[in-house]
Amino acid sequence: MVNKMDGLDFRSLVSAIHQTHEHLAARAGRAVNVSLTMRNWLIGAYIHEYELHGIDRAKYGDKLFVELARRLADLKVSNCNRRQLYRYLRFYRLYPEIVGTLSPQLRKQLPFDLQDSVAKTLEPKKVGTASPQLRIPPDKLIQRLSYSHLEQIIDLDEDFKRVFYTIECIRGNWSVRELKRQIASLYYERSGLSRDKEKLAELVQSGAEQAEPKLVIRDPYVFEFLGLKPAEVMSESDLEDQLLDRLQEFLLELGHGFCFEARQKRVLIGDTYNFIDLVFYHRILKCHVLIELKVDAFTHEYIGQLNTYVSWFKKNMMREGDNQPIGILLCTQKDHTLVEYALAGMDNNLFVSSTSLNSPKRKRYRGFWKKRYGR
Q1: How does pLDDT run across 73-124, given as a tens digit for each residue?
Q2: Helix (H, G, I), strand (E, B) or coil at 266
Q3: What is the sign, positive or negative, of the torsion defined by CA atoms of 174, 179, 180, 185?
Q4: Helical H runs in 61-210?
Q5: What DSSP line would sit under 5-24, residue for residue?
Q6: Is 128 left (phi over 0), alpha (psi -120 to 50) or beta?
Q7: DSSP code per residue over 313-358
Q8: What CA–CA distance (Å, rounded) separates 351 from 279?
Q9: CA gap 165, 192 in Å, rounded
Q10: How many CB atoms are located within 10 Å of the residue 11 CB?
């Protein structure tokens, strides 16, 4: 960053403003993420305390989380459905030492019984009694990982597995997507079976997608925490951004009848929030059309993801008179044989096409529409 104004030329002026913007935007994003993490931890702490000492807790019993979620929804408190409340409670119980990062003002807001447990938590621990989580300083935990990162780690079922992914994620500055990918690829288990763990770690970290500080506030949890609409969550894909910036041309190339409904439509499937890149309704064909945009070559995992979305729409969004929804997967490259086998046996209407930064051509879909609907 430019420190001296003497001899400042126009290029240096632009550079100084740009660097200042990047630095402070990233700092603001980190501050929001820390606040969100602390909020969720405190929610878990309050629930924990209520379950132990709430004077009317017997009145709610097993319905506590359902009723609490309903009341909080009425008050428009974001991301406090029943599943999330369970997660916040688990977050608190797994990482009680985070209490040490609370400001004096926040500590004063805690119930007296919880303040006593706070004091005990902050007492020095005897050697050999510390839990695995204490290997990672709590201030480092909340400063380096967003709540979206922590949520992936909270859901893991083993202490050392959580520690492993936490350390690797911080070490590699992984994005949330990269953390999910490494968990799904059983990196922890593969590391345990590997003879050369260091070499495996180097290979993983060298190909890992890193988190960009300036994109930290694009986290969907942060958007809701700040009161922004989920539809405003932007994709990190340059391909998607360029296609959607030319949405009118994109629709015209696909053909007549497409009515835009949503971008990055959020749907809750089981315990997981998912985001469908594009959702249209075709007024002539009388069906929803879901489009997933991928910035790399086709894989069978992508068709499985799209099939899940189409199945969810079929069950939850179809109305009387609607035809079954259609899924379109756009990739930069596709292996026709792999696509053929990936689609084999699937009941849903799925279609795969390769694309570049140019819009997909209408003629690629004409045969599909005609075959399926006679139009």
Answers
A1: 999 888 899 999 999 999 999 998 888 888 877 777 776 566 565 556 555 5
A2: strand
A3: positive
A4: 64-74, 82-94, 104-108, 112-122, 138-144, 147-154, 159-172, 176-184, 187-193, 197-206
A5: -TT--HHHHHHHHHHHHHHH
A6: left
A7: HHHHT--TTPPPPEEEEEESB--HHHHHHHHTT--SEEEEEE--SS
A8: 15
A9: 13
A10: 8
- CB-CB contact of 214 with 26 (8 Å): yes
How does residue 217 score in pLDDT terms, banded at 50, 70 and 90? very low
Q: CB–CB of 89/44 below 8 Å?
A: yes
Q: DSSP string spanning 186-228? A: THHHHHHH-S-HHHHHHHHHHTPPBPPGGGGGG-HHHHHHTT-
**Are 286 and 323 a contacting pair, CB within 8 Å?**
yes
Tell me the longest C-alpha to C-alpha distance in the chain. 75
What CA–CA distance (Å, rounded) separates 224 from 77? 9
- One-letter amino acid for residue 250 of the chain: F
Please identify which residue in the block is written with the tokens 């929001």.
Answer: 32
Query: Distances from the Cα of 159 to the Cαs of 134, 163, 328, in angstroms?
Result: 11, 6, 40
Residue ranges and CATH numbers for the domains of the chain are: 10-123+132-215 (no CATH), 237-373 (3.40.1350.10)
Burial class (CB in 10 A: 0-12, 13-18, 19+), 325: buried
Residue 374 backbone zone (phi > 0: left; psi -120 to 50: alpha; other: beta): left
pLDDT in tens, 111-152: 656 656 555 655 555 544 445 444 688 888 988 898 989 999
Number of CB atoms found within 10 A of residue 192's CB: 12
Give the C-alpha separation, 274 to 124, whole Å: 42
Strand 326-331 vs strand 287-293: parallel, antiparallel, or unpaired? parallel
